Amino acid sequence: MHNKNERLILNSDELRRAITRIAHEILERNKGAKDLVLVGLHTRGVPLAQRIAKTINSIEGTNLPIGKLDISLYRDDFIGRAKPIIKSTELPVPIEDQVVILVDDVLYTGRSIRAAMDALTDFGRAKSIQLAVLVDRGHREVPIRPDYIGKNIPTSRNEAVSVRLEEVDCLEGVTLAPNPGLIINERSDGKRGLED
Amino acid sequence: MKDRLLIKGARVICPANGIDKKIDVLVDAGEIKDTGVNIGASDGAISINATGLVLAPGLIDLHCHLREPGFEYKETVRSGTAAAVKGGFTTICAMPNTNPVADNATAIQSLMDKAKGQPARVLPIGAATKNSAGKELTEMADMVDAGAIGFSDDGNPISSDILMRHALEYSSALGVPIIDHCEVSSLFTNGQINEGWIASRLGLQGIPAAAEEQMVNRNIALAKLTGGWVHLAHVSTKGSVDSIRRAKKLGVRITAEATPHHLTLTEEAVLHRPGSSGIYKPLSEDAYNTMSKVNPPLRTQEDVDALVEGLADGIIDIIATDHAPHAYTEKLCPMQEAAFGISNLETAFASALSLVHNKKLNLPRLIESMASSPARLLQTSNKKIGQITKGFSADLTLFDMNTGWTVDTNQFVSKGKNSPLHGQKLKGKVILTIYKGQVVYSELNKDLLYT
Amino acid sequence: MSPHAGIPSLKPLASNRFDERKHVLDLDDFTPGEIQLVLDNALAMQEVMGRSVRKVPALRGKTIVTLFHEPSTRTRASFEQAGKILSADVINISDSASSAKKGESLYNTALSIQAMQADIIVVRHPHSGSTNFLARHLNSSIINAGDGYHAHPSQALLDLYTIQSHFGDIKNRKVVIVGDILYSRVARSNLWGLTKMGARVTLCAPPTLMPPDFINGFSKDHPFKSVSVTHNLSEAIKDADVVMALRLQAERQSKGRLPSLREYSRLYGINREILSLANKKVIVMHPGPMNENVEINTEIAHGPHSVIQEQVKNGVAVRMALLYAVAAANRGGK
């Protein structure tokens, strides 16, 4: 852990169980895996979507399409983007008449999800868009509500929630810490990036 | 009524007489009345305690542009002479590239008339060819009678060899020089700055040193051929200095001037990176400094060193300002659209003083090159100027060697605010300028200096 | 009141830090990381261009003015399209329609454009340094779209992008730039970009078309120290991965720099025979517009090694990335 004031909220086992639960809820809500497309938001939404898809595939024997979405070009602000890095956007199938499950790590103000829905709309008219998040920490600024939640974590605005995933951070777990401003994460590519 | 002034305790430098010592100078009725140790206060004289200051003959500039008539938005005789005395000059010679060109006795007379009552003496230079077009000679004798002290097509080099030959032959009978801006314009197109790595770096067309040197060599050959007197304006390259040195050894009748900017600045001023040399660093948005665009262009350090050495040796006879005022908007544009020239009268002396501070030149030689020698070149004008000698015109410059100041072009009295020195520190300041016995410029602190 | 009140004094030097870039005047003040960022983002922009809805709201509400004082087809259109895909409002001002024809100074024209609250002004001007001049006096961001013989950074970036997209990397690729180096802003900006990204660059031109200070090569403390210079094309082109031919103006002949276009073409034209000396996978680039059969043979220009059309296509994505980077760096307050 990077900060001695960090408090562990989910350990790696709990994290795994939360993902499994989300996978089951998705199948339950949509009565199976038909027409599902999982789309992860960069950065940590992408491996989360892959994990959820893997779980669903192992239950249903399917091979769900997984997309990646970068919302940089749809943000209503550039704030916090110290380096304007745009990552790849890839949708493996047309989303027309598909059920798109947007996947992100932390739901906070809701602005990223608003931007993500704008982006998705440019790719076609999905049958429905649902939202899965690992952590809902509250403090919404736009009317957005998640469909699947790994864990609700009540926070104050001056706290920071950090999700770390093996694929990106070489660590697993979710922590809560007093906000030192912005948390600097080591990225998998060795570059340092600011995340909001 | 003329002031009676007694200037006490200054270090008086008058190279023409070999004087460099602490003496008093008494001025009366526009003339130097007396010089000597401990001159007593005479009736009604204002006594100035000039201890710690230097008193020199009023500076003389053989090359400036007053722009009137035709370009009064750039400068007038009035604003130009005000700038001159602020810079320590009491005599300035105006180039004829006005509109219309000063190529006849009437135009010369008109300038002489305008100069009356101004704070400094203005001596006209007439055009060498009609309308400075390089085709036919002007009526030089008429103009000399009207007051012209030399002839030049400044800005337009006299490119016709045969016409230059005849100009030298004809003017030799009048005892005045042909002042030539040495440049073979056909050697380059649309040149902006010195040809070299900076021009290449900036993507600007260069003006090669050879363009000047070729013309210097031609002029030397023609001076030798005709026995006429050629004065080389604003020499800027080492090659020119070398040629002049050789020619002078052979006794060819040439004289030469260098400007304060060519003696102190290099082409790097165009990059607007004073004090930092080095190749191919990233350009700042302040590069392409049009204030440093001047013709001939600022050259390399090697050229600067050769010019300074030549000045110290007397190979370069004098310092002239080539004061070239322009409206600010004529510099507020891309380099290619910018006018050539530097507004120089108010900084020339302090900037030349840096050569003394840097021990490259001694102070008497500097005074000689800015007062005594120019006066010698003007001898035919029969003016008793350029010396602190009894009976000479009381044209005097009192200055402090060591006062530091920051150039602020907004404070220029010249209409031309175009100077690459804006914001730079200079050391040495004119305290008092006296022209024909009258104080025409003063920074005297009355409490300290009037006794 | 100062005698020229209202004339702005010099602004402090703009920072060239990664995230604080105000202007794009040349690549000389770019770090390799910053260049790589633009190339990476250009890849993302390429994806946007491949969508059925080619529009993203990134620069919504921003105003971009293209001010072109020199004829241009592709660069102007490229910037315009880039701005429009990013949802900026793009206003084009070209020479024939501009007040320059009525004698208005560049400064006054630019002030008027700034008064229209242009966030970014994309400038093409025949005089070197005119974009530096504008950057010095205006508050808008300036992007240089070609100034005289000085610089053409967006062209160099799209060239780098094209090389990268073909070879995966730029480092250690041998790039030969052939032709009128002396008068080429494309070559100058490419020299900065290519050397910063670690390419091995060879310049090849007749001595009359090479900057005089380049002819004898570069010293050890020069940023172009890795660049070689030659007058011999068959020597230069050996094992080249990239051959970049530059446009040759016919006026070089009339001004005495070349005896004839024919002889130029024989010595420096890119044809099948000379290209056979290069790497088998060599790509041939040209910034356009081409003089076919002068600096480049028709069969090469339209042959399998040519990536000239790709350059144009990549130009839009790279300029999107550039506009985005400048807008992101100059986001107004929180």
Characterise the protein shown here:
The complex is a heterotrimer of chains A (196), B (451) and C (334). By secondary structure, chain A is of the alpha/beta class. Chain A is built from four helices and ten strands. Chain A has helices spanning 12-29, 45-60, 111-123, 166-169; strands at residues 7-10, 36-41, 66-69, 99-107, 128-136, 148-152, 159-164, 173-178, 184-186, 192-194. A five-stranded parallel beta sheet of chain A has the order 3-2-4-5-6. A three-stranded antiparallel beta sheet of chain A has the order 1-8-7. Chain A has a two-stranded antiparallel sheet with strand order 9-10. In chain A, helix 1 packs across helix 2. Chain A is globular. Chain B has one domain: Metal-dependent hydrolases (TIM Barrel, Alpha-Beta Barrel), CATH 3.20.20. Chain B has 451 residues and is of the alpha/beta class. In chain B, helix 4 crosses helix 6. Chain B is globular and about 65 Å long. In chain B, the strands form five sheets. Chain B has a six-stranded mixed beta sheet with strand order 3-2-7-18-19-20, with helices on one face. A five-stranded parallel beta sheet of chain B has the order 11-12-15-16-17. In chain B, strand 13, helix 5 and strand 14 (206-207) form a beta-alpha-beta unit. Chain C folds into two domains: 18-151 and 313-329, Aspartate/ornithine carbamoyltransferase (Rossmann fold), CATH 3.40.50.1370; 153-312, Rossmann fold (3-Layer(aba) Sandwich), CATH 3.40.50.1370. Chain C has a five-stranded parallel beta sheet. A four-stranded parallel beta sheet of chain C has the order 2-1-3-4, with helices on both faces. Chain C is globular. Chains in contact: A-C, B-C.
Keywords:
heterotrimer, A: 196 residues, alpha/beta, Rossmann fold, five-stranded parallel sheet, three-stranded antiparallel sheet, 4 helices, 10 strands, 26% helix, globular, disordered C terminus, C: 334 residues, 2 domains, four-stranded parallel sheet, 12 helices, 36% helix, 13% strand, disordered N terminus
Number of helices of chain B: 12
The neighbouring-strand order within the major sheet of chain C is 7-6-5-8-9
Helix content of chain C: 25-40%
| Fraction of residues in β-strands of chain B | 15-25%
Strand-residue proportion of chain C: 5-15%
The CATH architecture of the largest domain in chain C would be 3-Layer(aba) Sandwich
